[in-house]
Amino acid sequence: APDIDGAKVEAHLEELGRIAAANGGNRAHGTPGYRASLDYVKGELDAAGYNTRIQQFNSGGKPGFNLIADLPDRGDHDKVVMLGAHLDSVDIGPGINDNGSGSAGILEVALTYAASGAKGDKAIRFGWWGAEEDGLVGSKAYVTSLSAAERESITAYLNFDMIGSPNPGYFVYNDDAKGDFITEALEEGFAAEDVPSEGVSLRGRSDHAPFMAVGIPSGGTATLSLVPVMSQAQAAKWNGKAGQPFDPCYHRNCDTVENISTAALDTHTDVAAYAAWKLTGVHAAGGS
Ligand code: PHE
Ligand code: CA
Ligand code: ZN
Ligand code: ZN
Ligand code: ZN
After folding, report:
1. Where would you find the membrane-spanning parts of this chain (predicted)?
2. From the CA of 281, how far away is ligand 2's center (Å)?
3. Shortest CA distance to 179 belongs to which of 139, 214, 151, 219?
4. Peptide bond before residue 26 is cis, with ω within 30 degrees of 0
5. Among residues of the chain, what percentage have pLDDT more than 90?
6. Cβ partners under 8 Å of residue 211, min gap 6
7. Span from the CA of 9 to the centroid of ligand 2 (angstroms)
8. What is the ipTM of this complex?
9. Which residues contact 33 (CB under 8 A, 6 or more apart)?
């Protein structure tokens, strides 16, 4: 798999920061900042040759939107590997680590995959979810909308939520036994980056949960776990700050571009790409 250009991921994240600043300081469900975020991501994907689709749903009396992107003519579309991230923020802040980071990371994976000409045995699909912060509403709406055949065609779902924490961990989800092969691919990706990873259960607290609930194998990475602070052992292996939160700006208005470890963001994005190339079975251009 290629080395994703971290500067390009940062550029997407900075754009999401500008969008929040221009729209009342957030990108929450039901706000113009959310819609502008979606339009930005969609524009990038359309220009790269993706077939994009906006799926509308309702949450709290307001319309919400998911963005689904398929890359035509690459792999068997009855066997799909899907990467996803929630694009909405909380109301209180711009949501740059949560979850501009995952959104920007998978966007650059998508653009790199298209540009490289990578062709796998399986097709690749990307999803950006709305209203995660209202209770995984967008990802639930997507999974619910799938026919049985469409559900079965999704061979793996990989989720990326909070991949740029300033005191970062390098966690791989182990919530889903069916997703063990995904976990292994992600662990291999961290090993290729020379970064020690750690398994963690997120107890379904992000958008992989609706997929897991219908038997679609799921996995993902994150820079934090559900415990409030980094342990001594974790700080030692990751050169982090023991006893400090992974992200002190979690769900706060200081979750800006200054709240990001660009090194962690790049590493997690490279690992996402590693798994995307490996799980789709790339064997043509871009498969180095
Ligand atoms: N999904 C939760 C949120 O968006 C937090 C979370 C992210 C928990 C990543 C664990 C891992 O607020
Ligand atoms: Ca990189
Ligand atoms: Zn959140
Ligand atoms: Zn989140
Ligand atoms: Zn092959």
Report:
1. none
2. 20
3. 219
4. no
5. 98
6. 139, 143, 154, 157, 159, 218
7. 9
8. 0.92
9. 19, 20, 22, 23, 24, 25, 26, 27, 89
CB atoms < 10 A from the CB of 40, how many? 18
CB 79 within 8 A of CB 284: no
| Ligand 1 neighbour 202 (Cβ under 6 A) | yes
Question: Which atom number of ligand 1 is nearest to the Cα of residue 202?
Answer: 10
Asked if residues 248 and 165 have their Cβ atoms less than 8 Å apart, the reply is no
For atom 7 of ligand 1, the residue with the nearest CA is 161
Tell me, using a 6 A CB cutoff, whether residue 98 lines ligand 1. Answer: yes
Return the SS3 of 94.
coil
The predicted-structure confidence for 225-283, as pLDDT tens digits, reads as follows: 999 999 999 999 999 999 999 999 999 999 999 999 999 999 999 999 999 999 999 97
> What value, to the nearest 5°, has the Cα angle with vertex 192 and ends 188 and 193?
120
Say if ligand 1 is within 6 A of residue 206 CB: yes
Strand partners for 128: 67, 85
Q: Is the pLDDT of residue 286 over 80?
A: no
Does the pTM of the predicted model rise above 0.90?
Answer: yes
209: left (phi > 0), else alpha (psi -120 to 50), else beta? alpha
Which of 129, 163, 200, 205 to probe ligand 1 with, by most ligand atoms within 8 A of CB?
A: 205
Q: Would you say the C-alpha torsion 212, 62, 44, 49 has a positive or negative sign?
A: positive
Identify whether 132 is a catalytic site residue: yes
Indicate if ligand 1 lies below 6 Å from the C-beta of 222. yes
Q: What is the mean pLDDT of the chain?
A: 97
Which stretch of DSSP H or E encloses residue 141? helix 137-145
